[in-house]
Design goal:
- This protein has 95 residues and is of the alpha+beta class.
- It has helices at 23-36, 40-50, 58-71, 82-89, and strands at residues 5-12, 15-22.
- The longest helix is centred in the N-terminal third of the chain and has 14 residues, at 23-36.
- The mean pLDDT is 83.
Length: 95
């Protein structure tokens, strides 16, 4: 069975690193970068810089950032719905 998590290379503060993310989270991250008119590397650098000490790795910090971003977006009825937004971002896993 093929893994749903893919390793992706990215530059953070001038250093190449890799993160392991599901495709839906990667697409969500790219969309947020487009909305903010910045590169994915710039967005990941900001996420890394603001990462709390209790979040162990960058991949987890990115997932939480993307989830939080979509959780705080109003859905079509003006309510906040993380599941709705993640499904629009292409996530297939249940929350």
């Amino acid at each position: 069975m093929k893994s749903l998590v893919m390793k992706r290379s990215i530059v953070v503060v001038g250093h190449k690193t890799s993160v392991s993310l599901e495709d839906a989270f990667w697409r969500g991250l790219k969309q947020i970068a487009v909305e903010r008119d910045i590169t994915v590397s710039e967005l990941v650098t900001a996420i890394d810089f603001r990462r709390p000490n209790d979040i162990g790795n960058l991949s987890s910090a990115i997932r939480l950032f993307v989830l939080d971003h979509y959780r705080n977006q109003p859905d079509d009825m003006g309510e906040r719905s993380a599941k709705h937004e993640l499904m629009r971002a292409g996530a297939t896993a249940t929350l």
